[in-house]
Amino acid sequence: MKVSIRVNGVAYERDVEPRTLLAYFLREECHLTGTHIGCDTSACGCCVVVMDGDKAVKSCTMFAVQADGHEIMTVEGLAQGGALHPIQQGFWDQHGLQCGYCTPGMMLTAYVLLGQNPNPSEAEIREGLAGNLCRCTGYQNIVKAVKQAAEVMRQPAPAAQ
Amino acid sequence: MIPAAFEYIRAHSADEAFAALQKHGAEARVLAGGQSLVPAMRFRLARPAALVDINAVRELDYIRLDGGLTIGATARDSAVERAPWIKDTTWSLLHDVSRVVADPVVRQMATVVGSLCHNDPAGDWTTAALAARAEVLVRGRSGERAVPIDEFLVDSFTTAVAEGEIALAVRFPGSGDRTAGSYQKVERKVGDFATAAAAVQLTLNADGTIKAAGVALSAAGPCAVRVPQAEQRLVGQKPTADLIRAAAEAASQKSEPQADLRGSVEYKKHLAGVLVSRGLRQALARLGVQA
């Protein structure tokens, strides 16, 4: 089936089998390997991408054909013009990762969370990230990273997006 | 794993979806949020020959307050969770469920109606639908019909939706401002299936006696289980600690869980009673009643 999916602003027109999962489409057709595949049970959240700007979805649990005509943002779409997104900067500054496997999903879930709630409490951040698993950090620094990003993004400075 | 191959049909209206289901019969499945179906297909537990995708069917993406509450087949869990009126006491059972079903990312795709149609033994929406006495609107060859939830939930992963039919919406009846509920769930981690869970909903009379009661359990049988013994005990009575204890005891007896890594049969039966007790207390507290 022919699909046209905009990924990070670029239109990808491909002929895919309906059973192609979006995560595999992104990695193998778009060569955007920042989207990780961690589990087969939609439990881990490593594969989270943003659909239509305001929805975090587990891309291993939807078919690429479902994204036909939609806009997808992967972790590669966060940085603009070589400048890290405040969420990425937060993870960098606060050491929000160790092995990095869960990080793309964490950051994109946080992206949608901060879009809906620009000033989340620590509890709201923890609740919002509850669908994403990390085996390294113990989550402390991930929460700090998102908190820092929220503060930066709330400011009207040019660095904020 | 990669799912087995299937034919993909994108419906743009309920009519188109129904026609496709009629054409493909038992081999077809409806794809709404897909948060249970796609993992089942990845494990090859499900191998539908055709998927009828209803995500583009705009007419089914709604949540309507119409005296009761009607939720269309493609309305997401997260839309229920974020609805401005969901914090009204009368919808407190559904509000509770919308905050603990699956995980926050899965809720952005998952649908209430899809969860009812999946009918997992440890489902959350199925249990709440029992306690709230919902009905499901099903479209079949002879038109639309409203199926009471007790008839809708047939057995594990089996519902009253027959071959070629489609569930269009679920309707929760309105019960007025003296109604509150509670959903109590014990899970090992966010997104895990419930170890045990209980849904309760109470409506009080002006004199403080219980006018209507719904009590149901998750992960306590082949699918969500109503506890009529508890409901009958509660109706007509003034809420007291003894009454709550009796209802909890009835729930514990009714529970028929399976032993697994989440706990033993004995533990889960005990938990069913504890959760009904906590749920009743919380529902009453939401109505300003201490018991």
Task: Provide a compact summary of the structure.
The complex is a heterodimer of chains A (161) and B (291). Chain A is of the alpha+beta class.
Describe this structure in words.
The complex is a heterodimer of chains A (161) and B (291). Chain A has 5 helices and 5 strands; from the N terminus they run ββαβββαααα. Chain A has 161 residues and is an alpha+beta fold. Chain A folds into 2 domains: 2-77, Ubiquitin-like (UB roll) (Roll); 86-154, Orthogonal Bundle (DNA polymerase, domain 1). A 5-stranded mixed beta sheet of chain A has the order 2-1-5-3-4, sandwiched between helices. In chain A, strand 3 and strand 4 (55-58) form a beta hairpin. Chain A is globular and about 45 Å long. The termini of chain A are far apart. The model of chain A has no long low-confidence stretch (mean pLDDT 95). By secondary structure, chain B is an alpha+beta fold. Chain B has helices at 14-24, 37-42, 77-82, 92-100, 112-118, 125-131, 149-152, 228-234, 241-254, 265-286, and strands at residues 7-10, 28-31, 50-53, 63-66, 68-72, 135-140, 143-148, 153-155, 158-159, 166-172, 179-186, 196-204, 210-218, 225-226. In chain B, the strands form 4 sheets. Chain B has a 5-stranded antiparallel beta sheet with strand order 4-5-10-6-7. A 4-stranded antiparallel beta sheet of chain B has the order 11-12-13-14. In chain B, strands 1-3-2 form a 3-stranded parallel beta sheet, with helices on one face. The radius of gyration of chain B is 19 Å and the shape is globular. In chain B, strand 12 and strand 13 form a beta hairpin. Chain B folds into 3 domains: 7-53, Uridine Diphospho-n-acetylenolpyruvylglucosamine Reductase, domain 2 (2-Layer Sandwich), CATH 3.30.43; 59-172, Uridine Diphospho-n-acetylenolpyruvylglucosamine Reductase, domain 3, CATH 3.30.465.10; 179-286, Enolase-like, domain 1 (2-Layer Sandwich), CATH 3.30.390. The termini of chain B are far apart. Chain A binds chain B through residues 1, 17-19, 21, 24, 40-43, 45, 48, 55-58, 60-63, 65-66, 68, 109, 112-113, 116, 127-132, and chain B through 1-8, 10, 31, 34-35, 38-39, 41-43, 51, 53, 55, 82, 102-106, 108-109, 190-191.
